[in-house]
Amino acid sequence: xxxxxxxxxxxxxxxxxxxxxxxxxxxxxxxxxxxxxxxxxxxxxxxxxxxxxxxxxxxxxxxxxxxxxxxxxxxxxxxxxxxxxxxxxxxxxxxxxxxxxxxxxxxxxxxxxxxxxxxxxxxxxxxxxxxxxxxxxxxxxxxxxxxxxxxxxxxxxxxxxxxxxxxxxxxxxxxxxxxxxxxxxxxxxxxxxxxxxxxxxxxxxxxxxxxxxxxxxxxxxxxxxxxxxxxxxxxxxxxxxxxxxxx
Length: 247
Known about the structure:
With 247 residues, this protein is mainly beta.
């Protein structure tokens, strides 16, 4: 049954790509709301809808749904299913998480655009202790601005994943878009605290159409140690599919 659902998602992407709204400007790609793991200040438009799926290690699939419910406000949800693709068992779903982002400043000549948000989605969920081994963003402030040359955008921000500890983390990222066809991405995430080590992620985003993109990325570059629960912590290859449309 789970594999039938997965195949239905793939069919949905194929139909959606070829049934885009013909009135949309085909030369304009939609804003990036995130790079690989780090958020940007970008949001989807009012009445917009975004569907994104990540295929990660051990046959897992992580899916996000995001809605432009107001002029500057996005609301979304995500859910993770372990062992969905392949022969590993059992197939298990992790409880859904919520996302909220409000872009309160569009930026100027010298200042970046700014967005405040919350993201409850972490990675590597341990059911025994009911925690993500890679923390969720939690409450975050994200800033984005084009720098140095057209197409090169810098992103950065601060986040508090755990309100019990109130530790302040940070993240930075860069992406460079070439002729609206491909975007090269680099980011450093989870910085500031040695007990929760930072990670370096690299990837490329291919714009198949202005509404549909494919990401190929490497997470945890150079890592080869263990999480606090003893699980191996290694570099991970991921693929992401994203489709944007409007109501």
